[in-house]
Amino acid sequence: MKSLLGIGECMIELSSAGDNLWKQSFAGDVFNTLWYAKALMAEDTAIDFFSAVGDDQSSEDLVEFIEKAGISCAGIPRIEKGVPGLYRIHLDGAERSFSYWRDTSAAKQFMKSPELLWKQIATADIVYLSGITVAILPDEDVEVFISGLRAALKPGAIVAFDPNIRPRLWANEARMKDVITRTAAISDLVMPSFEDEETTFGDKTPMATAQRYQALGVKQVLVKNGEDDTLFVEGDKAEYFPVKTVEGVLDTTAAGDSFNGAFFAEYMVSGDVPKAISLAQRCAGVVICNKGALIPFETVKASV
Ligand code: ADP
């Protein structure tokens, strides 16, 4: 497999630099995953990001940041008078909370010209999306997205989906569960985090989560569970992979995103699931010992 396409939103991130000073960066769940895939991916692999951006300076900066990381966003729609979404990280000791300004972000309009997306999808071996990808779309666009996605895939390509459940992004719980479930049903690989699934769907165990997705026709399910074992299920085979204890956990932001990115980096080259899970766990273990969503490539490469 030679190409990975992520579809979603990348936002401006503001974190405190002390005394009313703000450090600006960029992040967003799907983009974070591409970042870690890029850090660990074979040289000859293409990584693309599909979203929508505006026509202002912040959108220019965002595109420049993404391209500079070696991730292409050629062919994405530009929204007239659009601006990127923004979020601010509040730190209270080691506790983090977030304020978001994303209701009017350009990324919500990534289905404005669906043919641009279908064209991009047709180039990818793995198409990766998350629950946030579908949560930010207007209702009518969700339907076009879900009904058109598989038809646009090239033969042999797969859809990977992390439900990444964020209740505050949804109008209500019933809608959230319905769209997450229907998006999973068009996916080949679902990569949930057990805590979210337990809270939303009432699953008693990671195996119950895996079986619920399998019942929708999903071929492979990879259930992350913090410091507890990672579960991989395919057909009637199930395997648990213990997570190594990590000392000095600082900030668990992007643990799941980085796990997914590292998983793809190995899986796309070797197709070896245990090896990919091992790299994914090691990468997430490094990310949670550093502050912020995006760790420099060199640090990631040197530490896993
Ligand atoms: P999310 O960030 O999506 O909530 P998880 O909390 O399940 O996802 O974490 C994703 C992965 O990060 C885990 O599968 C594990 O490999 C790693 N991880 C998370 N928390 C810890 C921890 N306390 N110690 C070691 N690894 C962890």
Q: What's the SSE blueprint?
A:
Blueprint: E1 3-7, E2 11-16, E3 22-27, H1 29-40, E4 46-50, H2 57-68, E5 86-92, E6 95-101, H3 114-121, E7 126-130, H4 131-135, H5 139-152, E8 158-162, H6 173-185, E9 189-190, H7 194-201, H8 206-214, E10 220-223, E11 230-234, E12 237-241, H9 255-270, H10 273-287, H11 297-303
Parallel strand pairs: 1-4, 1-7, 2-5, 7-8, 8-9, 9-10
Antiparallel strand pairs: 2-3, 5-6, 10-11, 11-12
Helix pairs in contact: 1-9, 1-11, 3-5, 9-10
GO molecular function, one term: 2-dehydro-3-deoxygluconokinase activity
Family: Belongs to the carbohydrate kinase PfkB family.
EC number: 2.7.1.20
Notable characteristics:
20% strand; 12 strands; binds adenosine-5'-diphosphate; 304 residues; alpha/beta; 8-stranded mixed beta sheet; 11 helices; single chain; UDP-N-acetylmuramoyl-L-alanine:D-glutamate ligase; 4-stranded mixed beta sheet
Please provide a written account of the structure:
Helices cover 39% and strands 20% of the residues. Helix 3 (114-121) packs parallel to helix 5 (139-152) and helix 9 (255-270) packs antiparallel against helix 10 (273-287). The model has no long low-confidence stretch (mean pLDDT 95). It is an alpha/beta fold. It has a single domain, classed as Ribokinase (UDP-N-acetylmuramoyl-L-alanine:D-glutamate ligase, 3-Layer(aba) Sandwich). A hairpin with a 2-residue loop joins strand 11 (230-234) and strand 12 (237-241). The strands form two sheets. Strands 4-1-7-8-9-10-11-12 form an eight-stranded mixed sheet, sandwiched between helices. Strands 3-2-5-6 form a four-stranded mixed sheet. The radius of gyration is 18 Å and the shape is globular. It contains eleven helices and twelve strands. The chain has helices spanning 29-40, 57-68, 114-121, 131-135, 139-152, 173-185, 194-201, 206-214, 255-270, 273-287, 297-303, and strands at 3-7, 11-16, 22-27, 46-50, 86-92, 95-101, 126-130, 158-162, 189-190, 220-223, 230-234, 237-241. The site of adenosine-5'-diphosphate has 18 residues, from helix 9 and helix 10.
